[in-house]
Amino acid sequence: MSSRIEILNEGGFRSDGRRQYELREMTFDSTAQAGADGSARVAHGLTEVLVSVFGPREARVRAQTLHDRASIHVEATIAPFSSTSDRRRRGRGDKRTLELAATIKATFEPVVQTSLYPRSQIDIFVHVLQQDGGVLQASINATTVALVNAGVPLADYVCAVTGGVHAAAPMLDLTSLEENDLPHVTVASMPRSGHLTLVSMETRLHVDRFEEILRLAGEAGPVIHKEMRAVVRQRTKDLLDGMGKGLRESNPAEAMIEDE
Amino acid sequence: MRPPSPSIPEKDFFFSALDQALRLDGRDFLEARPHSLSFGAELGHVECSLGKTRVLAQVDAKMVRPEPQRPFEGLISIHCELSPMASTEYEPGRQSDEEIALARMLDKIFRRSDTIDREALCILAGERVWHLRIAIHALADAGGLLDCASLACAAALRHFRRPDVEVVGANEVIVHPPALRAPVPLALHHTPYCITFACYRAAPEPSAAAAKGAGAGTVAGQTETAPRVLLDPAGLEHRLAQGMLHLALTPQRELAVVHKAGGLPLAPGVLMGAVQVAARRARELEAWLDVRVREDWVRKKVEVR
């Protein structure tokens, strides 16, 4: 079926009407789960991931406590209804899920300032709700926003993006249709330094093409960073306004002074 | 019980040596350990060593019924075994995380990158195909197990030959024993070689490393403040690495797998420098492996007059 769909047509448009370097619409919701210390629901087009962060809190398992820093614990689940092609229920031992969790853990371990919280643990729960390509990218971006919301100190934001090549034409942010047909790379960068924390590729690609994608992904990082920062600032502003409102109601005298 | 992590004096010694641009075994930063291969009596039985790391790879093929949704494709499975024989770090019994990671990486390098032409393993569509089983046994682990295992696996695939088969009529398959007809080599699209780099934070005083002849032995694009990148980390280098970068390349300068999950953040320039070094090494390994496999085939040939 997919062979009949043009990945990139003569007019330079992709199957979903985007240009080569165009990203899908990003939506961030940082109020997704009230019970968590920080949470984020991030959607890149039709790919949607919910991440909840608990902690830093006292480590549950004594044996896993580290005396000089916090331990990070990541659990990932992929909802059976998340993709149209593969609707099997993935258990806890599923290799793909375990790998996703291990990758997220390895990506954030050097970024989170764990040494500030010795003998504690940070739990990150990743739920993949919808899949349409770029699951790792969405999971990493959602984890960044969730960690920021939880107030966990980070060295920098981590911004992930997927890139692929179709007949020597590089493109960004692939859908699952494109991912199935093209070699693709997921790159996570830290926008302040421009350094890469994660580079993951599982399909064959020439070195020169790879270099091109790496450069493009480096340029896409700051764009995603801008979106994320705007969301975090908005959320903080909302919280601040909400606090001010509560103050005014409980202490009308102060509110009157402020009004003057 | 796992052995404790490297002691503080060990760490200090290693990092102060690194600050003087020295490695514990006296290699240059971008120098790999010596590698060697020995072939067993059977085709597809290869023992590979990389420094003191040794891996045994064995390929065998048997006929099975194909999966119903892919009637034209043969099956390939890769099995890894890390026993306590390889290192005190490994325990018997349950699959360890290292074992899962090794199996996943080998799976990506050889299966997902379409190294082996699966359709060439088909004998009778929907009825009979070859099932290739690649067994990897770690005999000794002194760091760089993945590189050694992938080299052993590549060598075993190149060394292996399956018996010649003939299809007579609609569904009669004749297997010719190797004594009567020369066995057939596998149809390989390319051979990927896995190359590992270990990354360490830059020296506190960059001048020290730069003064001690860092010129020839550093990745292109590496400046004084750039992290130090070591090819083929062994033993202590592996355990103290702040970031690991695994690259699998074909000699045609095609990347099959790039795996850098977390660890020390790298600038894109440093990463590309490492890729260029790896591309060169993949070409060297290819030339070397080609010669070794051909030598062994010539030695095995028995002429019948």
Characterise the protein shown here:
The complex is a heterodimer of chains A (260) and B (305). Chain A is α+β, with helices and mostly antiparallel strands and 260 residues long. Chain A has one domain: GHMP Kinase, N-terminal domain (Ribosomal Protein S5, domain 2, 2-Layer Sandwich). Helix content of chain A is 33%, strand content 27%. Chain A is built from five helices and ten strands. Chain A is globular, with a radius of gyration of 20 Å. Chain B is an alpha+beta fold and 305 residues long. Chain B has a single domain, classed as GHMP Kinase, N-terminal domain (Ribosomal Protein S5, domain 2). In chain B, 29% of the residues lie in helices and 31% in strands. Chain B contains six helices and 14 strands. Chain B has helices at residues 8-19, 97-112, 145-159, 206-211, 235-239, 268-300, and strands spanning 35-39, 45-50, 53-64, 75-82, 122-124, 128-140, 161-162, 164-168, 172-176, 184-185, 193-200, 228-231, 243-250, 254-266. In chain B, the strands form four sheets. In chain B, strands 1, 2, 3, 4, 5 and 6 form a six-stranded mixed beta sheet that branches. Mean pLDDT of chain B is 86; it is low at 206-218 and 220-224. The interface between A and B is medium-sized, with 34 and 33 residues. Strand 10 of chain A pairs antiparallel with strand 14 of chain B. Chain B: This is Ribosomal protein S5 domain 2-like protein. Chain B: Keywords: Cytoplasm, Ribonucleoprotein, Ribosomal protein, RNA-binding. Chain B: GO terms for molecular function: mRNA 3'-UTR AU-rich region binding. Chain B: One of its GO terms (cellular component) is cytoplasmic exosome (RNase complex). Chain B: Its main location: cytoplasm.
The helix/strand class of chain B is alpha+beta
Q: Quaternary state, please? A: heterodimer
C-alpha Rg of chain B, in Å? 22 Å
- What characteristic shape of chain A results from the CA principal axes? globular
Q: Give the CATH H-level superfamily of chain A.
A: GHMP Kinase, N-terminal domain
Distance between the termini of chain A: 68 Å
Helices of chain A, by number, come to 5
Extended strand count of chain B: 14
Main location (chain B): cytoplasm
Protein name (chain B): Ribosomal protein S5 domain 2-like protein
GO cellular component, one term (chain B): ribosome
Keywords (chain B): Cytoplasm, Ribonucleoprotein, Ribosomal protein, RNA-binding
